[in-house]
Amino acid sequence: MSKPWDTDLSIYADEAALLQGLRRRERDACLCMLKHYGPRLYRLALRLAGDPDVAEDVLQDAFIRGCERIDSFEGLSSLGTWLHRIVVTTALMHLRAAQSSRVARATASDGDDGTAFLEYQADERDAPDRAALSAELRAQIEQAILALPDALRTAFVLRELEGMSTAAAAAALGVSESALKVRLHRARAALRDALSHTAVEAGVFQSGASQ
Amino acid sequence: MSHPCCPELLALLDALDGQPPDAVERAVSAHVASCERCAGEERHLDDLLAAVRSSAAPMLPTGLEARLLARLCPPIT
Q1: Of residues A132 and A73, which shows the higher confidence score?
Q2: Are residues B59 and A123, on separate chains, in Cβ contact within 8 Å?
Q3: In sequence order, which residues have a C-beta less than 8 Å from that of residue A175 and are 6 or more positions away?
């Protein structure tokens, strides 16, 4: 019996072939999509959701939504960009639903328990210059981002990490551009505080805590 | 090396909490632009973030790909 990772994915070497496969509901095409886009979209979902369990739900919902709508994908952007937008929309929907639920339960929690964590592993896709940032420090930075309150984290991730314009990020979050900029100031101040123990020396990032 | 966030900025953000976003944004931007300490800390943060932006995404958590595939393409029984 063949295992999923034994599948020859080279038949989907380009996006057009992958799209055709997805439209034919081919299992191998789904697997190829997960392998190709899954890691980057999971990181996006985790950064936005701030919680690994919620991020998994977000990713699952987003991929299901994407597959359901694949026939209406017009190719105006790349498939990756299209899936990226679906993940952003889905993650924000999850956050809003969770917020409404919290309000309904009249709890005082802001949902920011700071326990979510991305484990970085050695990855051959990292170019040598990128590897200068140690896995430990990357994890610290990701942890600091995940520890931000929802409103600050989502603004920061969309604008600063995903490169959305101020106007687009504000629209996605349903706030004014000024309000978004204030959230960014607050997020950056919190990160500056949280990461103040890190040092940058001669282009090599190190953790001050482990010196 | 330790340099926690500029206390003047933190105090300013606290003092302006609840004020209209336009006014807060103007005041905070003005402080950051004129504060030497903030300039250094912003550069440090930008250096860290630049490296994070360019890093490859980590591998999916164990088992997640299989769970997603099972939901997207349920095995035919």
Answers
A1: A73
A2: yes
A3: A155, A183
Domains in chain A, please, with CATH? Answer: 11-113 (1.10.1740.10), 127-211 (1.10.10.10)
How far is it, in rounded angstroms, from Cα A111 to Cα A50?
Answer: 9
Let me know: does A180 contact A166? Beta carbons within 8 Å. Answer: yes
Asked if A56 lies within 8 A of B67 by C-beta distance, the reply is: yes
CB contact under 8 A, B45 and A192: yes
pLDDT tens digits, residue range A111-158? 444 333 344 333 434 444 444 567 788 889 999 999 999 999 999 999
Closest in A39, A138, A195 to B59, CB measured = A39
One DSSP character per residue, A134-158 reads -HHHHHHHHHHHHTS-HHHHHHHII
Alpha helix ranges (H) inside A79-131: 79-104
